[in-house]
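I have been asked to look over a protein record a colleague put together. Thanks in advance; the entry in question is below.
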Amino acid sequence: MQDTLDPHMAIHIADNVMGTLEFLLPLLQRLGFDNVTVTEEIEDAWRRIKEEQMPGQVEQVGMAELIFLEWELGGPELLRTIRADPELEELAIIYVTDEQPSRRKGDRARRDGVSGWAVRGVTGPQLYHLMRDLVRQQRGE
């Protein structure tokens, strides 16, 4: 079992909330991740995620191992689309929100297949441990 994450693993952020992007991207960079892509529109996010999964693109970006989705960007719709794709159904997906989700929202997200939550303001070590645990789970470790 691997205790550390590959700093070159492909991470994708689908988020159009500048405050969240301004917090999440630098946090991932401070944690040492250097293969992070960002889209700000739901259609672009889906297209980018699918491109990252296609052979021939792997050398450039790499197959995304983890995706951060903003709930307000259309996260629920994009999450259901990703989970409906057999090639992507096991992908680790973290919702990014400004506040702890309500019980109703959390239950809905779990039914739709979200892997975890990151509330804006999460610390580097907290985020790293969440990411590590989800990637381990995805790999069956």
